[in-house]
Amino acid sequence: MPDSPAKKPSRIQQRNRRVILDAALEVFSKHGYRGATLDQIAAEAGLSKPNILYYFEGKEDIHVTLLSQLMDTWLDPLVALDPDGDPRREILDYVDRKLTMAGELPRESRLFANEILQGAPRISPELHSHLKPLFDEKCAVIAGWVEAGKLPPLDPQHLLFSIWATTQHYADFEAQAQVLLGAETNPQPRAAAHLRAMFGALLAQPSGAASVH
Amino acid sequence: MPDSPAKKPSRIQQRNRRVILDAALEVFSKHGYRGATLDQIAAEAGLSKPNILYYFEGKEDIHVTLLSQLMDTWLDPLVALDPDGDPRREILDYVDRKLTMAGELPRESRLFANEILQGAPRISPELHSHLKPLFDEKCAVIAGWVEAGKLPPLDPQHLLFSIWATTQHYADFEAQAQVLLGAETNPQPRAAAHLRAMFGALLAQPSGAASVH
DNA sequence: GTCTATAATGAGATAGAC
DNA sequence: GTCTATCTCATTATAGAC
User: Fold this and answer.
1) Most buried pick, A163, B61, B114, B202, via CB within 10 A?
2) Chain B contact for A205 (CB, 8 A cutoff)
3) Would you write out chain B's pLDDT as a tens digit for each of its 213 residues?
């Protein structure tokens, strides 16, 4: 690790770190943490295995670095949810942003899903420090909208869960969707229309979620 | 492999196979395919490693067996969707059944999610032979309901995706939900209420999914 | 049928030359 | 900074005794 007196990473160093991280994202998202090997990452990056270990302390270091960087990007769409905007519009726009992001960054989505699925062993601290506060804050915003009568009664926490689940589904379960939809070019437009209709219906509901029975 | 002249597995053999499969489900669903080791499975099953390999040809054999058995159970709730029933009721009951199943069989949900997430390398044939035909059949049923005016216009394929995504989310992303909801006893009742409200709103929508802008 | 011991492979990490 | 060669350990699978 090059960090003796002056800790200024050269342009080559910065570039190599990026190349390695991009290769690692490709491999980790496809095979999971344990399924990925340094050989695969090295091959994908076009570097030798020891060279990889010159830039990172080990396999886990690479993985944690990826997850940490990802977290910020991943939360951007939710950060942008504006408490002063029109409630219905804000939430539907958030759904759009989230779906777009899953479509553009499917590897990141799968990397995250892999980690959570296995109990978040390496990203748990970030969940508490970054995700939880933001989640609570935005849930309070939505709850405020409901109390102000700007939205029908609904459960902010589970609404956000549903948004996450449905938007990330297209990245995380892509293999299944490809089998079921056939070689259809791109499911995204129809997915976007469906999700707008679904969440739009929920948010437009007059009032009092009538029991179904 | 005991299959020379008479292929009748003894009661002990049947029992041991079940014990091994249950242990394997526990381990595979927690660590993924590559993350799981025969040592862990053997320890969980209370058997020796060579004994495991007496009953199964290898690690992959165990995994494939699990996935194949799971597929049938997993599709039961959808099979039960009745073309002759009340459309809205049928779909909402399906959501309930799916959520209940994910709550009762979270390990199975995660095993399946792990496999799909990594591109369904081992279960792809079953997706084509079992899931696809059923999916097409039930989509046609729902499409028929829409054409008959019994349901508002909606996209059957993406409706099913949304149902799968939201119900399985609670099992697959349990680690995240636990962080965000705190040590709350059981999210299931509120999740069920939310999903009934959401899908109920979509299905009750008068007609013509109005563009949101 | 089940075990102990061990072979064979694969993968993370390091030594040391260049 | 980067490479070749190597070490070490974990893991799948087998051999052979009981």
Assistant:
1) B114
2) yes
3) 444 444 567 888 889 999 999 999 999 999 999 999 999 999 999 999 999 999 999 999 999 999 999 999 999 999 999 999 999 999 999 999 999 999 999 999 999 999 999 999 999 999 999 999 999 999 999 999 999 999 999 999 999 999 999 999 999 999 999 999 997 779 999 999 999 999 999 999 665 444 444
Phi, psi dihedrals of residue B46, rounded to the nearest 5°:
75, 30
Alpha-helical segments (H) within B36-58: 38-45, 49-55
Confidence of residue A62 (pLDDT cuts 50, 70, 90): very high
What span, in angstroms and rounded, lies between the C-alpha atoms of A3 and B39? 41
Residues in A closer than 8 angstroms to B35, CB to CB, are 32-35, 118
Chain A residues inside the 8 Å CB shell of B165: 165-166, 168-169, 173
Which pLDDT score is estimated for A210?
Answer: 44
Question: Residues 12-51, chain B: which have Cβ under 7 A from strand C?
Answer: 12-13, 16, 47-51
SS3 at position B48: coil
Cβ neighbours around B100 below 10 Å, total: 14
What's chain A's Rg over C-alpha atoms?
20
Residue of A nearest to B176 (CA): A116
Point out the nucleotide closest to B10 (alpha carbon to C1′).
C1
Contact by Cβ (8 Å): B105, B73: yes
From B113, B135, B198, residue closest to A202, measured CB to CB = B198
Say whether the CB atom of A60 is under 7 angstroms from strand C: yes
Do residue A32 and residue B32 have CB atoms under 8 angstroms apart? Answer: yes
- Measured CA B86 to C1' C9 distance, in angstroms: 59
Residue B165 DSSP code: H
Q: E strands within chain A? A: none
Q: Nearest residue to D2 (CA, C1')?
A: A51
Q: Which residues of B touch A119 (CB under 8 A)?
A: 30, 175
pLDDT for A67-112, tens place per residue?
A: 999 999 999 999 999 999 999 999 999 999 999 999 999 999 999 9
- Chain B partners within 8 Å of A176 (Cβ): 116, 120, 127, 131
The tokens 């800790």 sit on which residue?
A: A7
pLDDT tens by residue, A101-137: 999 999 999 999 999 999 999 999 999 999 999 999 9
